[in-house]
């Protein structure tokens, strides 16, 4: 809006009126009421609009009562950027570096040594086991509240290299529109992410409008105890639940307690969640964000080490999942672009 | 209302008007708007009214935004009857008996043998370990959805012996009023119970208006798998989280992700939850239902094997927790009474 002249009837508004005069009233009405303006017209957008219309049509064959309108969203690569590395991994490595001076013994471990040196490839060479060690060391020893505060402060002070933006600005505008559209239609939105639950809770309410109790994610053990006459919960290094792949339906059953009727993902890590959502009777919806836009964001799928999309893409057509082309289906990628 | 004559201006209404004429208009207004009519006037009721008024008064020193108005409720003994045995334990024993013919090996185990014989004392003799074995055996082998259905059907077909009522009719009317009152004031209600999460979800939405994702409870492990080309989740016998005592703050941190500002319990199993709620800065509220009404319900506290109330009662005064006398503070106990 900053480019508008300071009159209320500005340039853009005048343009909209001129366009409007050339259109039939019903088309104009439909156009101005478009809940997904960043989505280009096409079968993917139409499928989502049709689904929501069907499940909210009272008395219709596909009607679903509001309490059962559960929609689950993956986070990395579905709601925000996950390249060139998961944001939480960047956070973990930053934290390992920051904590290294107080932990001289870390230098004995090659995985930690690589992490401290900023060598992401070397840090990744330890595989899942090495990664879980880093994650545990970087994200334990404090209360869940204090950890969330640490994550929030890190997000506040960190910038991504490509756009020089806060990481929580690298969210997909078309997906924010989907969140708002579903919410306006009585849906309950849950994030179901492989990321750590408290890390996501540090920004999910502010950025996505999703409150803490509607975030499902991977967890580290929490130890209850006392300190100075108060109950104190302490995050332990041990990762006790991985909310990814086959873990996603488990997380959904445990935290949400109801099968979603719509699910949104972008990788094979979401494959089981999309199946769990669409394998039940009744009208269902699943959508995969395909990262095929190297210019505006990134292009990757089968060969990627992050957000690998292979099996879920192959099976999308026969399972009736919507494969969204970021390049073709999205008129806009970021809110600020 | 069944005793009212079929005119709109009935006996009770006429009585209310007569009383009203004798009162100042403001008092009448306050009286007719009483959100807790089953609570007798007194310091406990007043404390709850004052707390809610304070945290919802915009611009006031104790104002809490709606997203942080989290209230947690224990279930057994706080929202519904827990005597002469936890309802879920009665369910478990009924199920052990029903499944015994298909499990002849159970006869080798004295705890199972006692359970099958309906000998609750013998079944309890195995201690926590024996109990967890029974719980695991009775509540595993099916999907979480199927288990919830089994629990719902059991509730449908079972009656308690004292009142010959469905167990989910043995809910405390004054507490239902508290749920409605808090909800009307923008609170988010969570059940935080030592009971199994899916057992409570089987009735919580219908009876308390609390949706599945707002129920925190003890859990059994869930194993993801496939069957006939579909994803199938299976409940395992292993209890992997006990949401009781020190586990309640852990469950709150994990599932809710925000510290409650109000908590309601009835036993030492709620002690840590009440402390966790009231040990943080800002205006807080905690309430304990003291079962001292053998006539209308049950009378028990320090010596009870179920819902033992000892330490929490002792510390209530200095911690500012409201100790509610069921006998004196509640004008009515059950909705149907």
List the helices and strands and how they pair.
2 copies of one chain form a homodimer.
Chain A: H1 11-21, H2 25-32, H3 43-56, E1 70-73, H4 87-99, H5 110-116, H6 120-124, H7 127-138, H8 144-157, H9 173-184, E2 188-196, H10 197-201, H11 204-208, E3 215-227, E4 230-241, H12 247-256, E5 262-265, H13 271-278, E6 285-290, H14 311-319, E7 322-325, H15 326-329
Parallel strand pairs in A: 1-2, 1-5, 2-3, 5-6, 6-7
Antiparallel strand pairs in A: 3-4
Can you walk me through this structure?
- Two copies of one chain form a homodimer.
- The first copy, chain A, folds into two domains: 40-80 and 167-329, Rossmann fold (3-Layer(aba) Sandwich); 87-157, no CATH class.
- In chain A, a hairpin with a 2-residue loop joins strand 3 and strand 4 (230-241).
- With 337 residues, chain A is α/β, with parallel strands linked by helices.
- In chain A, helix 4 (87-99) packs across helix 7 (127-138).
- A seven-stranded mixed sheet of chain A has the order 4-3-2-1-5-6-7.
- Chain A has helices at residues 11-21, 25-32, 43-56, 87-99, 110-116, 120-124, 127-138, 144-157, 173-184, 197-201, 204-208, 247-256, 271-278, 311-319, 326-329, and strands at residues 70-73, 188-196, 215-227, 230-241, 262-265, 285-290, 322-325.
- The first copy, chain A, contains 15 helices and seven strands.
- Helix content of chain A is 41%, strand content 15%.
- Chain A is globular and about 65 Å long.
- Chain A binds chain B through residues 67, 144-145, 188, 190, 197-198, 201, 205, 211-215, 219, 222, 224, 230-231, 233, 246-247, 249-250, 253-259, 272, 275-276, 279, and chain B through 67, 144-145, 188, 190, 197-198, 201, 205, 211-215, 219, 222, 224, 230-231, 233, 246-247, 249-250, 253-259, 272, 275-276, 279.
């Amino acid at each position: 809006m900053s480019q508008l002249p300071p009159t209320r009837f500005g340039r853009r508004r005048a343009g909209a009126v001129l366009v409007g005069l050339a259109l039939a009233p019903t088309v104009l009405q439909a156009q101005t009421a478009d809940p997904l303006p960043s989505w280009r017209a096409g079968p993917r957008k139409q499928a989502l609009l049709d689904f929501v219309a069907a499940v909210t049509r009272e008395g219709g064959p596909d009607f679903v009562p509001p309490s059962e309108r559960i929609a689950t969203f993956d986070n990395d690569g579905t709601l925000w950027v996950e390249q060139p590395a998961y944001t939480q991994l960047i956070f973990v490595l930053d934290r390992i570096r920051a904590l290294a001076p107080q932990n001289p013994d870390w230098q004995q471990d090659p995985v930690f040594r690589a992490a401290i040196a900023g060598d992401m490839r070397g840090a990744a060479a330890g595989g899942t086991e090495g990664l879980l060690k880093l994650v545990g060391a970087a994200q334990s020893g404090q209360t869940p509240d204090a950890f969330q505060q640490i994550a929030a402060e890190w997000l506040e002070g960190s910038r991504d290299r490509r756009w020089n933006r806060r990481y929580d600005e690298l969210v997909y505008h078309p997906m924010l529109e989907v969140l708002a559209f579903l919410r306006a239609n009585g849906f309950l939105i849950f994030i179901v992410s492989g990321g750590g639950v408290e890390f996501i809770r540090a920004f999910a309410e502010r950025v996505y409008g999703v409150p803490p109790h509607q975030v499902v994610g991977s967890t580290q053990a929490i130890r209850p105890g006392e300190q100075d006459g108060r109950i104190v919960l302490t995050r332990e290094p041990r990762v006790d639940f991985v909310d990814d792949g086959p873990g996603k339906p488990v997380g959904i059953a445990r935290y949400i307690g109801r099968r979603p009727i719509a699910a949104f993902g972008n990788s094979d890590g979401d494959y089981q969640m999309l199946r769990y959502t669409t394998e039940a009777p009744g009208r269902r919806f699943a959508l995969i964000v395909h990262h095929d836009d190297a210019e505006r964001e990134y292009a990757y799928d089968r060969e990627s080490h992050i957000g690998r999309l292979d099996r879920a893409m192959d099976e999308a057509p026969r399972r009736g999942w919507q494969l969204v082309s970021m390049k073709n289906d999205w008129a806009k990628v970021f809110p600020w672009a």
